[in-house]
Known about the structure:
It contains six helices and 16 strands. It has 361 residues and is α/β, with parallel strands linked by helices. The strands form four sheets. It has a six-stranded mixed sheet with strand order 11-12-10-13-14-15, sandwiched between helices. It has a five-stranded mixed sheet with strand order 3-1-9-5-6, with no helix packed on it. It starts with a strand and ends with a strand.
Amino acid sequence: MFADSAKIYIRSGKGGDGHVSFRREMYVPAGGPDGGDGGRGGDLIFEVDDGLNTLSDFRYNRKFCAGDGENGSKKRCSGRDGEDLVIRVPEGTVIKEEKSGRVIADMSHENRRVVLLKGGRGGKGNQHYATSTMQVPKYAQPGQSGRELNVILELKLIADVGLIGFPNVGKSTLLSRVSNAKPKIANYHFTTLNPVLGVVDRESGRGFVMADIPGLIEGASEGVGLGHEFLKHIERTRVLIHVVDAASTEGRDPVEDIGKINRELFGYEESLGQKPQVIAANKLDVLYGEEQDEAVNRLKEVFEPQGIRVFPISAVSGAGIKELLDYVEELLNTIQEKPVVFEQEYFPEQDIPEFDEPYTV
């Protein structure tokens, strides 16, 4: 099952406590302190796993704790360090602090491995507190507490091209036509409930990744119809193909449909509305002659003066798709490839508690 969000609890390991003991051997009447140091707590690490493409592993396992450091012991023996815990996530996962929603890490592109929470340092044994005036210290340092957080994992797909549009306009059919992806296709709204990725191979040898984003509706930017769940997957795309029912088979006006979806993009985040767009005027195979020309010309008159090219296509028959893909490939080549990486806004290490005062035994 596809899952693109999860809420989990994470904790790094606690440092082991320093030990209080004194050397006791025959013929050594005043051996002095020999308490060992505590071991370091384990780090909590996030790492990208290319074999994963969903967050479904976190649906039932929601608590992740690194190993605690072992306490020190006598004869100056230090405790064993706690084991690090590595949590593997798919590329494109954004880790956010639960309460504030601020970004802690974006696991994409160059960011393959992040130590999110460092383990607590081990406490010093009483051997470190012996002085000329205090030769029998009966106290040691406790281990530093581990750091804990509730975090939200969000998977934002990494694709070059995103297919957007109202439900049932032919996005899945188009993706299945141009790639080996096998999205579910049927003649009803919201057939596609989860984003689907497909690789589009081109004669030039430079293919690109296309994502079928489930149908958006009016009010999506406010969360209507799982709008937020769908819109977040558009954030990393470089070009948007706006698929529209140019034949108005369901009685909707294609020009109004495009305007409504674009308003939702701006409403969710202004940068989405500013992405380069191409209009794929689909379902023209049900129109003939002048009706087909009128439908295409109307779209061109409205949007091509805005710099948005309109391509008449039929996702069923394949007509016009080559011209559409040629233009999209050309557009991708002209756009400077700047990976979308979300900057860190929350810094867990700033909130790590200081060492407690040495305690008396």
